[in-house]
Design a protein that fits this description.
single chain; about 170 residues; alpha+beta; PH-domain like; 2 domains; four-stranded antiparallel beta sheet; four-stranded mixed beta sheet; 5 helices; 8 strands; membrane; YcxB-like protein; YcxB-like_C
Length: about 170
């Protein structure tokens, strides 16, 4: 089984990956916990009449809960602008040999043993080669190839390395 498709990377696609990557690691989870605690402490301080302390804690809560997503949105836009490869559609072929990706005559073949993890978000399939190098496959752009791509990934990667939640 194989699938061929093209992906045009958008800021939304990169943002989805960055949100997933941030909030599935300890630092992202800890940031949310600290933000919620600051929010709760602010409410408590406000109820006790300490408006200034409450405002400071709400400011911290905003910093942890709101700043990070806004920052990631900005970074995803910068990433889209500065990554030359994202300026044109990327052609992919997924088959039993691995994943071939490229534009025009520039093609790279990635064998399955070069990937260490495959996950899904609500918006994308993400295949990791390293912490810094991933293939982001937006589900909306995969269309009818989605099930075939998931099947090929699931067949060629160890089951404990595949965390794909849905097959539609």
């Amino acid at each position: 089984m194989s699938a061929k498709f093209q992906i045009t990377m958008t800021q939304k696609d990169i943002f989805d990956f960055m949100i997933y990557h941030t909030y599935t690691h300890v630092s992202g989870i800890l940031g949310v916990v600290i933000g919620v605690v600051c929010l709760a402490l602010g409410v408590t301080q406000f109820q006790q009449g300490s408006e200034l302390i409450a405002a400071a804690e709400w400011f911290l809560a905003l910093a942890f809960l709101v700043y990070t997503p806004f920052s990631l949105w900005h970074k995803s836009g910068e990433q889209l602008k500065k990554t030359e490869m994202f300026r044109e559609p990327i052609s992919y072929e997924v088959n039993e040999n691995g994943v071939a990706a490229g534009q025009g005559k520039n093609r790279q073949q990635y064998p399955w043993n070069s990937f260490y993890k495959a996950v899904s978000t609500n918006q994308a399939l993400i295949i990791y080669m390293s912490k810094a190098q991933t293939l982001i496959l937006p589900i909306g752009q995969l269309g009818e190839n989605y099930a075939a791509v998931v099947q090929v990934i699931s067949t060629n990667m160890p089951p404990d390395k595949v965390k794909i939640r849905r097959v539609s």
